[in-house]
Amino acid sequence: MAKIDFGGVIENVVTREEFTLEKAQQVLKDEVIAVIGYGVQGPGQSLNLKDNGFKVIVGQRKGKTYDKAVADGWVPGETLFDIEEACEKGTIIEFLVSDAAQIAVWPTVKKHLTPGKALYFSHGFGITYNDRTGIVPPKDVDVIMVAPKGSGTSLRRLFLEGRGINSSYAVYQDATGKALDRTLALGIGVGSGYLFETDFKREVYSDLTGERGTLMGAIQGILLAQYETLREHGHSPSEAFNETVEELTQSLMPLFAEKGMDWMYANCSTTAQRGALDWMGPFHDATKPVFEKLYESVASGNEAQISIDSNSKPGYREGLEKELKALRDSELWRTGAAVRKLRPEND
Questions:
Q1: Residue 123 and residue 222 in one domain
Q2: Set 123, 233, 235, 284: catalytic member
Q3: Catalytic residue at 123?
Q4: Is the pLDDT of residue 347 over 80?
Q5: Is residue 338 part of a domain?
C-alpha cells in the first residue's frame, strides 16, 4: 500500500502496479460474484469483471433492465438469474440496486448471506443510515465497499479505452480475515485506476454533498444563473451558452483536468487571470454557507430520508421524468443541443 502526499496529508493508496490484476484473479479464483441490480453501476462493474476473467453472474428482476442485460450478453439460466437465485449462488454479493430499492430487496439478500460470504456495496448509504434502511448484515459475513468516483457508464467507457477511474474502498466488517484482499481485488477487477482508503460514513457524506454540490446541483445552479444574467442583459442564447458552458467544458475543463486549476489560470489571458483571481473570493464567500448547510443536512440524515421517502413513492419515476423533462426543455439546454451539433467533430 503506497503512502501518497495529498497536499501535505499522507494517505493510503493502492495502484494497479502494486495490486495487479493477476493477484486479484488469484484472490477471487474460487469466488462467484453476484451483481445484484443492472441499473447505474451494475452494467459497468459486471462487464468489466467478466472481461477481466472473474466468475460473474447477474441478478435482475424481469423487465426492461433484464432485457438490457440479455442484450449485453448475459445468458438467462447461465449467467443471468432472478435476484434470489443469484444471491444464493454468489459467494460475493454486489448489492448495486438503488439506495431506495435496497430497502425492499434487503430481506431477499439477507436470507442468502450465509457465513463466509461477502456483502459488497458501492455506496455507504444503506449501512451508514441503517436506522432508516434496516440494512444490518449478520456478523459472520464480510461487509466491504468499492465506490467508483463516477457513473457506471464512465467506468465502462474508460475501461474499454484501457484507462481507469479512481475509486474509494472500505472494510466495514471483516468476518473472514480476508475482507481487505477481497475488497482490493474487486476494486482492481471492476476497473479502478487506483483506490484510496475511506470508510462507509465518510464515503456517503462526501458523495451526497458532491452530488448536490459541484458535481451536479451547484454546477447547474451556477450555470443557469450566469446564463440568465447574460440573456436578461440582451445577449443571444448562443453567446450566453458559449460563454457559460461551451468554453468551460470544451476548453477550460480539459486544461485543469490535465494539470490543475493553477496551471489553467496561468495559461489564460492576463485579463481572465485578473478577473478570476478577483472574483473567486466573492463566489467562495457566497456559496460556503450553502455548502455548510448542505453538509449538515447530509450528516443529520435529512438528505437520506428525503431520498428514501421520494424514491419510494408510487409513481415517483413519472414525477422524476417531469422534472428532468423541464430541465431538458429549458432554453439553456435546448441551446446546448444546438451548439453541440455545430461542433466540428459532428460535421
A1: no
A2: 123
A3: yes
A4: no
A5: yes
